Amino acid sequence: MRAERLAKTTAAVQRQRAGEALSRVAMRLHLPTLVALAIIVVVWITLSRRFGDYVLPPPGRVLDGLRDLVVTGEVWEHVAASLYRISLGFGAAVVVSLLLGFLVARSPLLSVAVKDITTVLNSTSVFVWIVLALIWFGLTDRGPMFTTFMITIPIMLSNVIEGIENVDRRLLEVAKVYRFNELARFAHITIPSIVPYIVAGMKVGFALGLRVSVVAEIFGVTTGIGYMMNFNRDILRTDLVFAWAIVLIIVMLVMDKLVFESVSRWVQRWR
Amino acid sequence: MAEDKGGPFKLEVRGLSKRYQIPVIEALNLGIRPGEFVCLLGPNGCGKTTFLRILAGLEQPDTGEILIDGESVDLTVSSHHRIGVVFQEPRLLPWRTAMSNIVLCLAALGIHGKEARERAQHYLSLVGLRGFENYYPNRLSGGMQQRVSIARALAVEPDVLLMDEPFSALDPESRQILQDEVVKVWRTTGKTIIFVTHSLEEATYIGTRIVLFSARPARIRGSWELDGSSDRVALREELGQLLAQEVRQQQALMAQTQV
Ligand SMILES: Nc1ncnc2c1ncn2[C@@H]1O[C@H](COP(=O)(O)OP(=O)(O)OP(=O)(O)O)[C@@H](O)[C@H]1O
Ligand SMILES: [Mg+2]
User: Is ligand 1 within 6 A of the CB of residue B42?
Assistant: First the structure.
């Protein structure tokens, strides 16, 4: 009798454990997201039947288009073009914000000025820079680069400055006691201290840079994800517009999850 | 009680004063001979840390003069005089290993490459950390981190080694071990050391001389030499009473400033 009851409870416990394990696996696989995705696809198919290919092409056609882009290799050329422009524009923003950070760390007066400028830049519309880029750089690569730079620099700057203000003063005292010069102090104490702020700024800045530079690519250039989306809209290939949008999302995710996460883990391996 | 014996002093302080909103140190005179191990005692908030920070070049004194080997120096600007400091916390750069923390400080003095690594290695061994050179501070215990901090202070071969309650954050066991280590290091290197502590036991155990600071503003309340024949128990007794007096005075002072 007793043994039987015991066996029963053990079975119940086992069942419960199995249930928990199952829900953990479900979480790990983002099962809820997949379900939501399935629902969206069904709605998508229904709506595309109703509105037709031009307004809303069915998922199958979008996937076909995407596959063609990959098979023909077309996708790489344009992803590379976009990434190249973003990397230069955004890279310049990172370098300039670090240089300014070095100066700001030396002078509180400068810090006030830089902060005010950051605020102004932060509230300037993307479109201002796109239009100015067209005027100043015409139909060249430099337009999207400039736009990316102008939009990402305030983000990088405010992160770098906030990081510098939060550097552990006790470590700076160590630098003073052991007679580090300014460059050594900046390179070995300030920069490593602000790495988390830089990485956070780079993640946000790059995401924004990608979105903005794609918009900037509508004007002036003949390569890049943004250009291809606009081009396909012109020739009424809405399915390819969708395909390029998916490419854009994938590039974003890959950069964020693979590139930035591993870079950040590597530079902070001492933790 | 012994007065400062005449020079030559390794480190001499003349008429040193410092005030923040209140006078913290006033007309302080102190001479320390080469190789002395001075333990500095005094009530809470009397100005011991301030005194050490001035000697470390982290604060500018209002008046007074600091002499190293008889030469007047301004320690707040870079000079060829070297001061080693062990703070209450280890203050290591967490992104550098034990070895490279020390190598970085040597690089600031223009010592590079193999020479720097060998010297860092030597001092890490001296504090008992052979084999832990490539550990990041996070992977070392608190006591071991403090040892790295001591090795770093020694590696720059300082004129004076300053230690501000270096073991107060450690457990009694590590504390005991590190006290013995520091005495051993002092014997092998013959460094001039100023060591702030709140513990009479610690002071009478490790020091060759005890200096007692008064309640704020800090002046020298007394100075005692210690050697093998000193009666440490009686001295502890005497110091305990004097310290209690100063603590009471300091508390009265605090009550006053609060009004
Ligand atoms: N930067 C500062 N600004 C204003 N007041 C200060 C500053 N640093 C220290 N003080 C004051 O100077 C006095 C002495 O401080 P200090 O830290 O030197 O004391 P201490 O002897 O080291 O005390 P403790 O035994 O608690 O470590 C205190 O009253 C403190 O409030
Ligand atoms: Mg103190």
Answer: yes
